[in-house]
Amino acid sequence: MGIVSALFGGKKVFPVHLTDATFEQEVLRSELPVIVDFWSPGCVPCKKLEDIIFSLAKDYEGRVKIAEMNVAEAPKTAGRCRVAATPTVLYFKDGKPVERVVGVKGSLYHRQTIEEVFGITP
Fold it and tell me: Which of 11, 23, 55, 88 is the one with CA 20 to 30 A from 38?
């Protein structure tokens, strides 16, 4: 890691952007456990959750796939996943939803849930 990377937090890791077309391959067929943040434009709580999702993507890179889906761009998948409000975070293991969080929960909550549901520590 270079000095610039060290000063500015290292490599940027982004959540996987999902669409109706990519959801099955990226989530349901993923070999890694997956967390999907369903969000919508103009949603203030969604903006608050964004930093947490980016932090999780960086900290769990290669062990948990962190993804995000704009429900306005992917209404079919949001409907199939029964997302009625944003933000909604779904945890998937072996292609099946195993946990649902509606609203904003803090970073510690999500880290503890990853450990409990997936058995993965930071």
Answer: 11
